[in-house]
């Protein structure tokens, strides 16, 4: 069995939730939506929270930069659900 990391992941997710930015956490990732600098600040603080307690930090970062788009976390899922219901 692999290392238990749930406690460390919770530390990072706590930082994201406390940021006030739109976010969504699932079994594999936490998505955060906002302006570049504010999102990168949250990422940096989330990594620091894990780094303070864990022997290492692994991070996967994917960015979808689309000026003028807001509420993408919700609208993208709603679009897929609309197509599934059709």
TrEMBL record:
| Protein name as it appears in the record | MTH1187 family thiamine-binding protein
State the family named in the UniProt similarity comment for this chain.
Belongs to the UPF0045 family.
Species of the source: Streptomyces enissocaesilis
The segment(s) forming the Thiamine-binding protein domain are 2-81
| Pfam families named in the record | Thiamine_BP (PF01910)
InterPro entries documented for this protein: MTH1187/YkoF-like, Thiamine_BP, UPF0045_domain
């Amino acid at each position: 069995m692999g290392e238990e990391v749930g406690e460390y992941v919770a530390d990072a997710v706590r930082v994201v939730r406390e940021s006030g930015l739109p976010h969504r956490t699932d079994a594999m990732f936490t998505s955060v939506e906002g302006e570049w600098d504010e999102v990168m600040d949250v990422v940096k603080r989330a990594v620091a929270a894990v780094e303070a307690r864990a022997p290492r930090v692994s991070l996967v970062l994917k960015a979808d930069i689309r000026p003028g788009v807001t509420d993408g976390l919700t609208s993208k899922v709603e679009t897929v659900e609309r197509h599934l219901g059709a």
